[in-house]
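Board notes (copied after class):
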Amino acid sequence: MELPYTPERMDPDPARAKTREVSGRLLEMVAVKGKVTEPRTGMSFVVCDEYGQDLYALQHRWSVGGMTSDQYEAGMQNLRKALGEYGWKISKVSPEEIRATNETEHFFVEVISHTATPEPTLDFSVSSRCYRAASHAAANEG
């Protein structure tokens, strides 16, 4: 199988930094103050081996919690508005979920608002496209 794009050449450490930077900008777009947490998995290294042995992607999962119900709603509204202003194309939007792609930076985000739970959160999953590692060994270090 072939990818519909040419993967950017980048080793895992700089790719992790870039992914965290994108996540940080998304948090700024929410524009509400809460407690940011990462689940045990935090940043996951995903091998894109169906496309080549030196290809990988990253997935960064994190949440914002500890806010009032009004803050969760405001955060989702702020995010919906800001995504378009910062080059993200929204593919799905509802009061509880937003999915968007940034073709310039090559990232996808899914945000789910879990407000009907004892500990409400906005859960983020930020995924990169596949990168090409500088070497097969670097891809395996993930």
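Comment from the instructor: The helical segments are 12-30, 69-85, 136-141. Residues 109 and 126 are 5 Å apart (CA to CA).
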